[in-house]
Every structure is written in C-alpha cells, then in structure tokens.
Amino acid sequence: MPVTVLLVDDEPLVRAGLRAVLEAQPDIEVVGEAADGAAVIPLVRQLRPDVVAMDVRMPLMDGIEATRAVLRTVADPPKILVVTTFENDEYVYEALCAGADGFLLKRARPAEIVHAVRLVAEGESLLFPASVRQLAADYGDGGASPAARAVMERAALTEREADVLRLMARGMSNAEIAARLVVGTETVKSHVSSVLAKLGARDRTQAVIAAYESGFVAPG
C-alpha cells in the first residue's frame, strides 16, 4: 500500500511543487490538499492520510494549533510533518513539542522530501536529529522543565531503556540501536515501545523532546 499524504499550505505553488515531487514516487500518493490548518481535521477524518505535510505558518490556523487539534480530536491520527522556510525557528520547535513527528524545509531537494515522508511514515528513526538537538538547545528549557522532569522520574526507565532512549536521541534506527547494543531488532522494538508507553509519548520524536526538556539528555 502506498503512503498517503495530505498537503496543507497557504501557498498554491508550494503545494503544487510538493505534489509533483511526491506523486513521482510509486509508493507515495497525495490524497488531498488544504490551504489552511482550519481545514485539516475534516480532511483527515475523510481521507485518513498516513502523513500530513503541514506548513507551520498559515493565516487562520497555523501548523502548531492544527497539530494540537488533530492529535486532540482524531482517533488514530496521522503522522505530521511540519513544512517550514527556516530550520532554526522557534515555531518548528513548538510544533514538535505539540506533537509533530518531524519537519521539512521548503528548500529541500526532491530526494530529501521523499525521504522525509517515508521516514516519518515508518516511524523507526528520528528525522534530522542534529537539527532537533539544535532546536532543543536554542528554544527548549534545557532540563529546567519541572513537568518534563516529573514525567521522566515517573517513567522509571530501566538501564537498558535509558540506553535505548539516548541512542534514539542520536537519531539511530532500530537496526542501528540493535547493532550498538548487540541485541535483536525485535528486542529493540520492544524497548522502544516500552519507553514510549512509560513517557506517554506517541512516537520517537516526542520521546526525544521529553528527554531534552527533562535534562535526561543534554541537547548541546
């Protein structure tokens, strides 16, 4: 089955460019478009896309609020890939904290766009880990968030789960983590699932953000 994508951007030219790049791939299908975040929820419910590629800045409802709304109101929500002009942008970090699964630069090359959609859809690796780390360093609380620290303390990760979370923060895939820890891939998948459950995170990105915000992993 192809990865289905909903495009959300107030610039028709951007949507057209993304559609052309993605629909050139045999395993990706663009199922719809919207010009503002306010239209996302009904389209997500109607089209059930695997991934929403969403502009972070739009006139009526921006990508941050739209992300929150989708995750709050849609059962089994899609992955959300924030599309942005600037990499080092506080809005991007806010979107990740709100629940977005990754971000993509509008100036990205076609191969990078396709890779981002596939990677976010698979959910087994962190998209642009170095950039997420830099965003956390620039805009995060640097471990000063009492709420994030409390979540991490309640999680009571085992030593192996803690190792897995640290490697997740470095952007390693399940296969790479398995090779580093000399365990099977299925064992890593089990540890990742346990880490997400204990942290109340829906995916790797949210777990890594929690690790940075709590000070469990230093973003620098």
TrEMBL record:
State any single GO MF term. Answer: DNA binding
Biological processes annotated in GO: phosphorelay signal transduction system; regulation of DNA-templated transcription
Looking at the keywords, is Phosphoprotein present?
yes
Span of domain Response regulatory: 4-121
4-aspartylphosphate occurs at: 55
- Top-rank taxon of the source lineage equals Bacteria
Residue span, HTH luxR-type domain: 150-215
**PROSITE patterns tied to this protein:** HTH_LUXR_1 (PS00622), HTH_LUXR_2 (PS50043), RESPONSE_REGULATORY (PS50110)
InterPro entries per the record?
CheY-like_superfamily (IPR011006), NreC/VraR/RcsB-like_REC (IPR058245), Sig_transdc_resp-reg_C-effctor (IPR016032), Sig_transdc_resp-reg_receiver (IPR001789), Tscrpt_reg_LuxR_C (IPR000792), WalR-like (IPR039420)
Which CDD domains does the record match to this protein? Answer: LuxR_C_like, REC_NarL-like
Source organism of this protein record: Streptomyces triticiradicis
* Name listed for the protein in its UniProt record: Response regulator transcription factor
Keywords, sorted A to Z: DNA-binding, Phosphoprotein, Transcription, Transcription regulation
The record, for SUPFAM superfamilies, names: C-terminal effector domain of the bipartite response regulators, CheY-like
